[in-house]
Specification:
Blueprint: H1 2-16, H2 21-24, E1 93-98, E2 101-106, H3 110-123, E3 128-132, E4 137-140, E5 143-144, H4 150-158, E6 166-175, E7 182-191, H5 208-228, E8 246-250, E9 256-260, H6 264-276, E10 280-286, E11 291-299, H7 309-313, H8 320-326, E12 329-337, E13 340-348, E14 351-352, H9 355-369
Antiparallel strand pairs: 1-2, 2-7, 3-4, 4-6, 5-6, 6-7, 8-9, 9-13, 10-11, 11-12, 12-13, 13-14
Helix pairs in contact: 6-9
Length: 370
Protein backbone atom coordinates (compact mmCIF):
# COMPACT_ATOMS: atom_id res chain seq x y z
CA UNK A 1 0.00 0.00 0.00
CA UNK A 2 2.87 2.36 0.86
CA UNK A 3 4.53 1.53 -2.47
CA UNK A 4 1.33 2.38 -4.34
CA UNK A 5 1.00 5.66 -2.46
CA UNK A 6 4.60 6.52 -3.30
CA UNK A 7 4.12 5.88 -6.97
CA UNK A 8 0.95 7.95 -6.97
CA UNK A 9 2.81 10.84 -5.33
CA UNK A 10 5.62 10.61 -7.90
CA UNK A 11 3.12 10.62 -10.78
CA UNK A 12 1.39 13.68 -9.26
CA UNK A 13 4.69 15.54 -8.95
CA UNK A 14 5.71 14.77 -12.53
CA UNK A 15 2.31 15.79 -13.92
CA UNK A 16 2.34 19.03 -11.92
CA UNK A 17 5.70 19.97 -13.38
CA UNK A 18 4.63 19.33 -16.95
CA UNK A 19 4.93 23.02 -17.75
CA UNK A 20 8.49 23.29 -16.45
CA UNK A 21 11.15 23.63 -19.13
CA UNK A 22 13.79 21.79 -17.11
CA UNK A 23 11.71 18.60 -17.32
CA UNK A 24 10.07 18.56 -20.78
CA UNK A 25 11.60 21.55 -22.59
CA UNK A 26 14.22 21.44 -25.35
CA UNK A 27 16.97 21.36 -22.69
CA UNK A 28 15.01 19.33 -20.16
CA UNK A 29 15.90 15.91 -18.81
CA UNK A 30 13.09 14.20 -20.77
CA UNK A 31 13.63 16.23 -23.95
CA UNK A 32 13.17 14.81 -27.41
CA UNK A 33 16.51 13.54 -28.70
CA UNK A 34 15.21 12.65 -32.18
CA UNK A 35 17.23 15.42 -33.92
CA UNK A 36 20.46 15.08 -31.96
CA UNK A 37 22.18 13.47 -34.93
CA UNK A 38 22.07 16.85 -36.70
CA UNK A 39 24.50 18.19 -34.11
CA UNK A 40 26.88 15.25 -34.43
CA UNK A 41 30.44 15.97 -35.60
CA UNK A 42 32.81 13.73 -37.47
CA UNK A 43 35.85 12.45 -35.58
CA UNK A 44 39.11 11.13 -36.91
CA UNK A 45 39.29 7.38 -37.64
CA UNK A 46 40.62 5.24 -34.83
CA UNK A 47 44.36 4.54 -35.14
CA UNK A 48 45.80 1.12 -34.39
CA UNK A 49 49.41 0.39 -33.49
CA UNK A 50 51.60 -0.31 -36.54
CA UNK A 51 52.34 -3.92 -35.50
CA UNK A 52 48.66 -4.90 -35.25
CA UNK A 53 47.14 -6.72 -38.24
CA UNK A 54 43.83 -5.12 -39.16
CA UNK A 55 40.98 -5.98 -41.47
CA UNK A 56 38.85 -3.36 -43.15
CA UNK A 57 35.38 -3.10 -41.61
CA UNK A 58 32.58 -1.83 -43.79
CA UNK A 59 29.76 -0.04 -41.99
CA UNK A 60 26.65 -2.13 -41.46
CA UNK A 61 24.39 0.91 -41.64
CA UNK A 62 26.07 3.41 -43.99
CA UNK A 63 24.71 6.93 -44.04
CA UNK A 64 23.13 7.69 -47.43
CA UNK A 65 24.49 10.66 -49.35
CA UNK A 66 21.11 12.31 -50.01
CA UNK A 67 20.50 13.32 -46.40
CA UNK A 68 19.69 16.79 -45.12
CA UNK A 69 22.42 19.38 -45.19
CA UNK A 70 24.83 19.29 -42.25
CA UNK A 71 24.26 23.00 -41.83
CA UNK A 72 20.56 22.58 -41.06
CA UNK A 73 19.56 23.48 -37.53
CA UNK A 74 16.48 22.83 -35.47
CA UNK A 75 14.06 19.95 -35.42
CA UNK A 76 13.82 17.89 -38.58
CA UNK A 77 10.31 16.82 -39.68
CA UNK A 78 10.18 13.47 -41.40
CA UNK A 79 8.11 13.78 -44.61
CA UNK A 80 5.04 11.60 -45.07
CA UNK A 81 5.56 8.61 -47.40
CA UNK A 82 4.18 8.79 -50.89
CA UNK A 83 0.86 7.05 -51.42
CA UNK A 84 1.17 3.66 -53.11
CA UNK A 85 -0.44 3.40 -56.50
CA UNK A 86 -2.96 0.60 -56.86
CA UNK A 87 -1.89 -1.80 -59.62
CA UNK A 88 -5.00 -3.95 -59.60
CA UNK A 89 -8.58 -3.78 -58.48
CA UNK A 90 -10.56 -6.59 -56.94
CA UNK A 91 -13.58 -7.79 -58.85
CA UNK A 92 -16.58 -9.87 -57.92
CA UNK A 93 -15.87 -12.36 -60.71
CA UNK A 94 -12.73 -14.33 -61.56
CA UNK A 95 -11.76 -17.24 -63.79
CA UNK A 96 -10.57 -20.42 -62.08
CA UNK A 97 -8.56 -23.21 -63.74
CA UNK A 98 -7.65 -26.76 -62.80
CA UNK A 99 -6.13 -28.74 -65.66
CA UNK A 100 -8.55 -28.45 -68.58
CA UNK A 101 -11.43 -27.47 -66.29
CA UNK A 102 -12.42 -23.81 -66.22
CA UNK A 103 -15.14 -22.12 -64.21
CA UNK A 104 -16.09 -18.67 -62.94
CA UNK A 105 -15.98 -17.84 -59.23
CA UNK A 106 -18.45 -15.13 -58.20
CA UNK A 107 -18.38 -13.28 -54.89
CA UNK A 108 -22.17 -13.29 -54.90
CA UNK A 109 -24.88 -15.72 -53.92
CA UNK A 110 -26.28 -18.12 -56.56
CA UNK A 111 -29.61 -16.31 -56.49
CA UNK A 112 -27.88 -13.10 -57.63
CA UNK A 113 -25.75 -14.82 -60.29
CA UNK A 114 -28.65 -16.76 -61.83
CA UNK A 115 -30.43 -13.78 -63.52
CA UNK A 116 -27.12 -12.31 -64.75
CA UNK A 117 -26.03 -15.54 -66.46
CA UNK A 118 -29.54 -16.20 -67.75
CA UNK A 119 -29.75 -12.70 -69.30
CA UNK A 120 -26.29 -12.99 -70.89
CA UNK A 121 -27.22 -16.08 -72.90
CA UNK A 122 -30.55 -14.62 -74.00
CA UNK A 123 -28.90 -11.37 -75.11
CA UNK A 124 -26.46 -13.32 -77.29
CA UNK A 125 -29.11 -15.24 -79.18
CA UNK A 126 -29.27 -18.49 -77.21
CA UNK A 127 -32.75 -19.94 -76.75
CA UNK A 128 -33.38 -21.30 -73.25
CA UNK A 129 -34.96 -24.74 -73.57
CA UNK A 130 -34.97 -25.90 -69.95
CA UNK A 131 -34.42 -24.12 -66.67
CA UNK A 132 -34.41 -25.39 -63.10
CA UNK A 133 -33.84 -22.55 -60.63
CA UNK A 134 -34.11 -25.00 -57.73
CA UNK A 135 -30.93 -26.76 -58.90
CA UNK A 136 -29.26 -23.74 -60.47
CA UNK A 137 -29.25 -25.15 -64.02
CA UNK A 138 -30.51 -24.13 -67.43
CA UNK A 139 -29.97 -25.63 -70.90
CA UNK A 140 -30.10 -23.96 -74.28
CA UNK A 141 -31.78 -25.42 -77.37
CA UNK A 142 -29.92 -27.00 -80.31
CA UNK A 143 -28.70 -24.12 -82.51
CA UNK A 144 -26.21 -23.42 -85.29
CA UNK A 145 -23.55 -20.78 -84.75
CA UNK A 146 -25.09 -18.50 -87.36
CA UNK A 147 -28.35 -18.41 -85.35
CA UNK A 148 -26.63 -16.58 -82.51
CA UNK A 149 -25.90 -12.86 -82.34
CA UNK A 150 -23.33 -11.62 -84.88
CA UNK A 151 -20.72 -10.81 -82.21
CA UNK A 152 -21.16 -14.17 -80.48
CA UNK A 153 -21.02 -16.08 -83.79
CA UNK A 154 -17.79 -14.30 -84.72
CA UNK A 155 -16.25 -14.97 -81.32
CA UNK A 156 -17.14 -18.67 -81.30
CA UNK A 157 -16.05 -19.21 -84.90
CA UNK A 158 -12.71 -17.66 -84.04
CA UNK A 159 -12.34 -20.13 -81.17
CA UNK A 160 -12.50 -23.08 -83.58
CA UNK A 161 -16.19 -23.94 -83.28
CA UNK A 162 -17.69 -25.83 -86.22
CA UNK A 163 -19.85 -23.36 -88.11
CA UNK A 164 -22.34 -25.85 -89.58
CA UNK A 165 -22.72 -28.02 -86.47
CA UNK A 166 -25.54 -27.73 -83.96
CA UNK A 167 -24.61 -26.88 -80.38
CA UNK A 168 -26.40 -26.71 -77.05
CA UNK A 169 -25.05 -25.44 -73.72
CA UNK A 170 -25.67 -26.35 -70.10
CA UNK A 171 -24.98 -23.75 -67.39
CA UNK A 172 -24.77 -24.87 -63.76
CA UNK A 173 -24.54 -22.43 -60.85
CA UNK A 174 -23.47 -24.00 -57.57
CA UNK A 175 -22.96 -22.52 -54.09
CA UNK A 176 -19.28 -21.87 -53.50
CA UNK A 177 -17.14 -23.17 -50.65
CA UNK A 178 -17.43 -19.84 -48.84
CA UNK A 179 -20.73 -18.33 -47.84
CA UNK A 180 -22.37 -16.01 -50.43
CA UNK A 181 -20.12 -17.19 -53.28
CA UNK A 182 -21.01 -19.10 -56.44
CA UNK A 183 -19.27 -21.26 -59.02
CA UNK A 184 -20.46 -21.14 -62.63
CA UNK A 185 -19.77 -24.14 -64.89
CA UNK A 186 -20.37 -24.17 -68.66
CA UNK A 187 -20.33 -27.33 -70.79
CA UNK A 188 -21.43 -27.71 -74.41
CA UNK A 189 -22.18 -30.61 -76.75
CA UNK A 190 -22.24 -30.76 -80.56
CA UNK A 191 -24.01 -32.84 -83.19
CA UNK A 192 -23.77 -32.76 -87.01
CA UNK A 193 -26.02 -30.37 -88.88
CA UNK A 194 -29.32 -32.02 -89.74
CA UNK A 195 -29.01 -34.64 -87.00
CA UNK A 196 -31.89 -35.12 -84.57
CA UNK A 197 -30.01 -37.30 -82.07
CA UNK A 198 -30.43 -36.12 -78.48
CA UNK A 199 -26.80 -36.18 -77.36
CA UNK A 200 -26.24 -36.09 -73.61
CA UNK A 201 -24.00 -33.54 -71.96
CA UNK A 202 -20.56 -34.88 -71.01
CA UNK A 203 -19.48 -35.00 -67.38
CA UNK A 204 -16.71 -32.51 -68.13
CA UNK A 205 -15.74 -30.16 -70.94
CA UNK A 206 -14.80 -31.86 -74.21
CA UNK A 207 -15.21 -28.88 -76.57
CA UNK A 208 -12.42 -26.84 -74.98
CA UNK A 209 -12.27 -23.96 -77.48
CA UNK A 210 -16.03 -23.35 -77.49
CA UNK A 211 -16.45 -23.58 -73.70
CA UNK A 212 -13.36 -21.46 -73.02
CA UNK A 213 -14.64 -18.71 -75.31
CA UNK A 214 -18.01 -18.71 -73.51
CA UNK A 215 -16.32 -18.60 -70.09
CA UNK A 216 -14.08 -15.69 -71.10
CA UNK A 217 -16.91 -13.69 -72.65
CA UNK A 218 -19.32 -14.32 -69.76
CA UNK A 219 -16.60 -13.28 -67.29
CA UNK A 220 -15.95 -10.04 -69.20
CA UNK A 221 -19.68 -9.31 -69.37
CA UNK A 222 -20.12 -9.85 -65.63
CA UNK A 223 -17.15 -7.62 -64.80
CA UNK A 224 -18.50 -4.86 -67.03
CA UNK A 225 -21.86 -5.10 -65.30
CA UNK A 226 -20.16 -4.92 -61.90
CA UNK A 227 -18.09 -1.85 -62.87
CA UNK A 228 -21.17 0.00 -64.08
CA UNK A 229 -22.86 -0.66 -60.77
CA UNK A 230 -25.97 -1.92 -62.47
CA UNK A 231 -28.76 -3.35 -60.40
CA UNK A 232 -29.12 -7.10 -60.09
CA UNK A 233 -32.53 -8.73 -60.29
CA UNK A 234 -33.26 -10.93 -57.31
CA UNK A 235 -36.48 -12.40 -58.68
CA UNK A 236 -34.78 -15.79 -58.85
CA UNK A 237 -33.88 -15.63 -55.16
CA UNK A 238 -37.31 -16.87 -54.17
CA UNK A 239 -36.99 -20.05 -56.23
CA UNK A 240 -33.28 -20.76 -56.32
CA UNK A 241 -32.21 -23.66 -54.16
CA UNK A 242 -35.75 -23.98 -52.78
CA UNK A 243 -37.07 -27.56 -52.93
CA UNK A 244 -40.17 -28.20 -55.02
CA UNK A 245 -41.86 -30.16 -52.24
CA UNK A 246 -41.38 -30.02 -48.48
CA UNK A 247 -43.66 -32.19 -46.35
CA UNK A 248 -43.56 -33.01 -42.65
CA UNK A 249 -44.78 -36.56 -41.92
CA UNK A 250 -43.85 -39.63 -39.86
CA UNK A 251 -42.10 -42.89 -40.67
CA UNK A 252 -43.36 -46.40 -39.93
CA UNK A 253 -42.35 -46.07 -36.27
CA UNK A 254 -44.13 -42.76 -35.80
CA UNK A 255 -40.94 -40.66 -35.79
CA UNK A 256 -41.25 -37.21 -37.44
CA UNK A 257 -39.45 -36.86 -40.79
CA UNK A 258 -39.19 -34.02 -43.28
CA UNK A 259 -39.35 -35.01 -46.96
CA UNK A 260 -37.51 -32.58 -49.24
CA UNK A 261 -38.08 -32.89 -52.98
CA UNK A 262 -34.60 -32.16 -54.35
CA UNK A 263 -31.18 -33.75 -54.74
CA UNK A 264 -28.84 -34.22 -51.80
CA UNK A 265 -26.48 -31.36 -52.65
CA UNK A 266 -29.26 -28.78 -52.85
CA UNK A 267 -30.98 -30.17 -49.78
CA UNK A 268 -27.73 -29.89 -47.81
CA UNK A 269 -27.33 -26.26 -48.82
CA UNK A 270 -30.95 -25.26 -48.20
CA UNK A 271 -31.28 -27.08 -44.85
CA UNK A 272 -28.03 -25.50 -43.68
CA UNK A 273 -29.34 -22.06 -44.54
CA UNK A 274 -32.64 -22.84 -42.81
CA UNK A 275 -30.75 -23.82 -39.63
CA UNK A 276 -28.68 -20.62 -39.82
CA UNK A 277 -31.93 -18.64 -39.84
CA UNK A 278 -33.20 -20.51 -36.78
CA UNK A 279 -32.75 -19.66 -33.13
CA UNK A 280 -30.36 -22.48 -32.17
CA UNK A 281 -26.64 -22.87 -32.50
CA UNK A 282 -25.07 -25.06 -35.18
CA UNK A 283 -21.90 -26.28 -33.47
CA UNK A 284 -20.46 -28.52 -36.19
CA UNK A 285 -21.19 -30.16 -39.55
CA UNK A 286 -20.12 -33.35 -41.30
CA UNK A 287 -20.83 -33.12 -45.02
CA UNK A 288 -19.74 -36.67 -45.85
CA UNK A 289 -22.20 -38.12 -43.30
CA UNK A 290 -24.92 -35.55 -44.00
CA UNK A 291 -25.04 -34.32 -40.39
CA UNK A 292 -25.61 -30.95 -38.75
CA UNK A 293 -24.82 -30.87 -35.01
CA UNK A 294 -27.07 -28.44 -33.13
CA UNK A 295 -27.35 -27.30 -29.51
CA UNK A 296 -30.87 -26.25 -28.54
CA UNK A 297 -29.69 -24.71 -25.26
CA UNK A 298 -27.56 -22.08 -27.01
CA UNK A 299 -28.71 -19.25 -29.24
CA UNK A 300 -27.49 -18.90 -32.81
CA UNK A 301 -24.13 -17.20 -33.27
CA UNK A 302 -25.24 -13.75 -34.30
CA UNK A 303 -23.83 -10.34 -33.28
CA UNK A 304 -26.89 -9.54 -31.15
CA UNK A 305 -26.54 -12.82 -29.25
CA UNK A 306 -22.83 -12.44 -28.49
CA UNK A 307 -21.96 -11.26 -24.93
CA UNK A 308 -20.93 -7.62 -24.71
CA UNK A 309 -17.72 -6.14 -23.34
CA UNK A 310 -19.01 -5.66 -19.81
CA UNK A 311 -20.54 -9.16 -19.75
CA UNK A 312 -17.13 -10.64 -20.50
CA UNK A 313 -15.36 -8.23 -18.16
CA UNK A 314 -17.51 -8.92 -15.11
CA UNK A 315 -17.97 -12.61 -15.77
CA UNK A 316 -21.71 -12.64 -16.44
CA UNK A 317 -21.15 -14.58 -19.68
CA UNK A 318 -21.37 -18.37 -19.11
CA UNK A 319 -18.12 -20.27 -18.89
CA UNK A 320 -17.34 -23.54 -20.64
CA UNK A 321 -18.48 -25.69 -17.71
CA UNK A 322 -21.84 -23.92 -17.55
CA UNK A 323 -22.35 -24.32 -21.31
CA UNK A 324 -21.60 -28.04 -21.09
CA UNK A 325 -23.90 -28.54 -18.10
CA UNK A 326 -26.96 -27.10 -19.83
CA UNK A 327 -26.24 -28.43 -23.37
CA UNK A 328 -29.09 -30.04 -25.35
CA UNK A 329 -27.27 -31.52 -28.32
CA UNK A 330 -28.92 -33.24 -31.26
CA UNK A 331 -27.96 -34.03 -34.81
CA UNK A 332 -29.94 -33.33 -37.97
CA UNK A 333 -29.38 -36.07 -40.56
CA UNK A 334 -30.00 -35.86 -44.32
CA UNK A 335 -30.51 -39.18 -46.15
CA UNK A 336 -31.15 -39.80 -49.84
CA UNK A 337 -34.33 -41.85 -50.36
CA UNK A 338 -35.31 -42.31 -54.00
CA UNK A 339 -35.77 -38.93 -55.65
CA UNK A 340 -36.20 -37.16 -52.30
CA UNK A 341 -34.13 -36.39 -49.23
CA UNK A 342 -35.35 -37.26 -45.75
CA UNK A 343 -34.38 -35.01 -42.85
CA UNK A 344 -34.49 -36.55 -39.36
CA UNK A 345 -33.41 -35.52 -35.87
CA UNK A 346 -31.37 -37.85 -33.64
CA UNK A 347 -29.97 -37.76 -30.15
CA UNK A 348 -27.02 -39.80 -31.39
CA UNK A 349 -26.34 -42.39 -34.08
CA UNK A 350 -28.24 -45.07 -32.12
CA UNK A 351 -31.10 -43.03 -30.63
CA UNK A 352 -33.77 -40.91 -32.29
CA UNK A 353 -34.72 -37.61 -30.72
CA UNK A 354 -37.95 -37.35 -28.70
CA UNK A 355 -40.91 -36.79 -31.01
CA UNK A 356 -41.71 -33.32 -29.65
CA UNK A 357 -38.11 -32.15 -30.08
CA UNK A 358 -37.85 -33.58 -33.60
CA UNK A 359 -41.15 -32.03 -34.63
CA UNK A 360 -40.09 -28.63 -33.27
CA UNK A 361 -36.72 -28.67 -35.08
CA UNK A 362 -38.14 -29.98 -38.37
CA UNK A 363 -40.97 -27.46 -38.19
CA UNK A 364 -38.50 -24.58 -37.99
CA UNK A 365 -36.51 -26.01 -40.93
CA UNK A 366 -39.72 -26.37 -42.95
CA UNK A 367 -40.77 -22.78 -42.22
CA UNK A 368 -37.34 -21.43 -43.25
CA UNK A 369 -37.22 -23.45 -46.47
CA UNK A 370 -40.13 -21.50 -47.99
Amino acid sequence: MKRLAGLSTLALIISSTAGCGWVWGPNGYFRDRGSDYLEATQTAPMQLPADVASKRLDPLLPIPRNVASDTQKGEFVVPRPQQLAATATATDFSLQKSGDARWILAQRSPAEVWPIAHQYFEDNGFRIAEERPQTGEFNTAWQRIDELSASMAKRLTGSGATADAQTRVRVRIEPGVQRNTSEIYIVSVERPSGSTADTDFPARTTNLGFDSALNDDLLASMNRSSEKGGSVSLLAARDFDTPNRVALSTDGSGNPILNVGTDLDRAWSSVGRALDQGEWRVEDINRSLGLYYINLAEKAKTPENEPGFFSRLFGSAPNKEQVEARAERYQVRLSKVGDNVQVTVEKNINTVAPADVARRVLGVIQDNLG
